[in-house]
Design brief:
The chain has 66 residues and is an alpha+beta fold. It is globular and about 35 Å long. It has a three-stranded antiparallel β-sheet with strand order 2-1-3. It has two helices and three strands, in the order E-H-E-H-E. 27% of the residues lie in helices and 27% in strands. It has a single domain, classed as Ubiquitin-like (UB roll) (Roll).
Length: 66
């Protein structure tokens, strides 16, 4: 069982082309730190141009759902 509160943010350009590319991010990080991690993930995309992302999974939220 995961004790961290995390989200999995995926690159939609890669996802739409059948590739899994994303990162697990600590959801308790500062918003600017989360944004920077998302931007780094998009910059490393296997697709030439990636700008859209989505949260595809989460862990550690207990009984809280969104």
């Amino acid at each position: 069982m995961c004790t961290e509160i995390r989200i999995y943010v995926a690159d939609l350009a890669a996802y739409n082309n059948g590739k899994l590319h994303g990162v697990w991010i600590n959801a308790t990080d500062d918003l600017d730190a989360i944004r920077e991690q998302v931007n780094q993930m998009l910059a490393a995309s296997p697709e030439g141009f990636a700008e859209e992302y989505a949260i595809h999974d989460h862990e550690g939220f207990g009984g809280v759902y969104f």
